[in-house]
Design a protein that fits this description.
Blueprint (H helix, E strand, L loop, with lengths): L1 H6 L14 E8 L2 E7 L5 E8 L4 E7 L5 E7 L2 H4 L4 E8 L5 E9 L2 E6 L2 H13 L2 E5 L7 E4 L3 H13 L2
Antiparallel strand pairs: 1-2, 2-3, 3-4, 4-5, 5-8, 6-7, 6-9, 7-8, 9-10
Length: about 160
C-alpha cells in the first residue's frame, strides 16, 4: 500500500497523477512544497518535496501509519541506471552519512523507507537544522545538492499534515 502512495510522489511536478487523484498544496516556502494527496482508493499521504528544478527533487512522506519514505526523482535516471536496486547515500551538512542499500528504481525515481522511529526523528531534526542535503550513489553520474532553506516550516507542515491523517 505504501508503494502505491509513492508512485504519486514521482508525481507532483513533471509526472502525471491519475485523473482521480486529489493533490492539495499545503505550503510553498523557499525551495520546499508540502502536499496532501489522496489516491483513487481515497488513501491519504502527506509529502514534503525540495526542488532543484522541475525535473529533480527529493521528497519525504508518510501515510500516517507507516514509516517515512524518501524518494529521489530525476528524469535522467532512466538514462543512467544499470541495476534494478542500488545503494543510496545521503548526508545533511557534515553529519554522519545515511546509507540505504537495496533501494529500488521505479521509472525516474528511487525510493526507500526509514522504518525506525528514532532514525525518523533524528533525520527530521537534521533536515530542520541543516543547510544542505547531499545525495549520491556510485551508479549515478551526478551528485545532488538540495538547499534546506525553509525546511523548518516544511517539516512543521509535513508533521501537522501527517498527524491529521
Amino acid at each position: 500500500m505504501i508503494g502505491r502512495f509513492f508512485v504519486a510522489v514521482a508525481f507532483c511536478i513533471g509526472a502525471a497523477l491519475p485523473v482521480s487523484a486529489d493533490v492539495q498544496t499545503i505550503l510553498k516556502h523557499k525551495h520546499w512544497q508540502v502536499f496532501y494527496m489522496t489516491d483513487p482508493g481515497r488513501s491519504a499521504v502527506c509529502v514534503a518535496s525540495v526542488f532543484v528544478s522541475d525535473k529533480v527533487h527529493f521528497s519525504i512522506g508518510s501515510n500516517g501509519s507507516g514509516p517515512l519514505r524518501m524518494t529521489m526523482v530525476d528524469n535522467r535516471f532512466k538514462e543512467t541506471r544499470r541495476a534494478k536496486t542500488v545503494s543510496v547515500n545521503y548526508q545533511i551538512d557534515k553529519q554522519r552519512p545515511w546509507v540505504n542499500t537495496n533501494v529500488a528504481f521505479k521509472g525516474n525515481s528511487v525510493s526507500w523507507e526509514m522504518p525506525n522511529n528514532q532514525e525518523n526523528a533524528q533525520f527530521m531534526a537534521e533536515i530542520i537544522a541543516g543547510q544542505d542535503l547531499l545525495v549520491w550513489a556510485d551508479w549515478a553520474q551526478y551528485d545532488y545538492r538540495f538547499s534546506l532553506r525553509g525546511s523548518q516550516a516544511a517539516m512543521q507542515a509535513l508533521i501537522s499534515c501527517i498527524s491529521k491523517i
